[in-house]
Structure prediction request, 369 residues.
Amino acid sequence: MKILIRFFVLFAAISTDRITYGAKPVVLEDLTGFDRPVSAAFSPDGTSLFVVNRSRGEVGARRDAGSITKFSVVEGPDFKLASKQFIVGLTAPSDIDFLPVDLAGVAPAGSLILVSGTPLIETEDGRMIKDASADFIGLSLYDPTTGRLIKKVDLGPASDVKLKDENPLVSPNSITIDRSGSVYIGDTGIGGNLFKNRIKAQPVIYRISTIGLVDMFTGKSPMDVGVMKISSIPGDISYQSADDSVFFVANHIQGATKGSVFKVARSDFHNVMKIQTVVRELTALSSMRLTPDGKVLLATNKGELIVPRGRKASRLIRFKPEMTFSTPGKFAILPEPGGAFIIAVPEETGSAGAGKGQRVRIVRVPSKF
Prediction:
């Protein structure tokens, strides 16, 4: 669970006098050499950082060119490259998380789970593919130590494994897992017109229980699947254990793009009437995480970090020196002693081209930001 990184002994040795309370966030380091990094996640014990490289061209994702990069995290924190291409051969990888429980007979707790795939695929001559029906769109499980593929399941339109009511995944872009092990997937629905049997665009959030996951990864269509149809494009999802709720970013794209954050209790997931508004009518939002003390921290499409103030306003988090992020993706949070925390923010665009100018910025945020 991305927002529930456990404190580990390694960082307990860091003295609190290194944390500046009430100060502005500071960039500690830039990790470089990525290929369209769109998501980052710390391992549950905080000793590794994984970065998802989407790899795309001018009009769509590059088939089999996506990857995951792995760093080891040591006292400081310092980031050491463990493997630039820890997992390779991916098409449109979007987001990752880690299983908090065993999937009986399938995968152990701690396994890395990846959601990937899109119909928006670029051909070798730079054009959009005409039919993506047979391309993989689904979930994959990996060993986070070796990168070995454990299991994968195709949930796209050509797969024999179907989600509830025959719904396939179309363009999944985010994933989170609750404490029971249920997986939540945000699907934008964009690009369904590029399948042989066209699918009408419908933004959806799916919830798949551990029983459903075991069914899927053993080749059966899962029965225990929840479907929440929403009216705006989901941008990111995070589970918060403190109130047992799922938070999600949604961008309304009719007219001027407006970003909102909603939450729904795990027990109320099937009831759209129980969705609560956290904040709405902000600028377009890219990603979201919850800080160790439960605050909602948002990255905007413009590259700013903000926190909600009331239902229709936000406060800008200023840096020293002043800066904004370049196309921020789904960032990761690592708690530190005393209430401060580290964020790892992938920046998808870069002036030097793929693999050269794109980076992950490592930032220390003080407890009273």
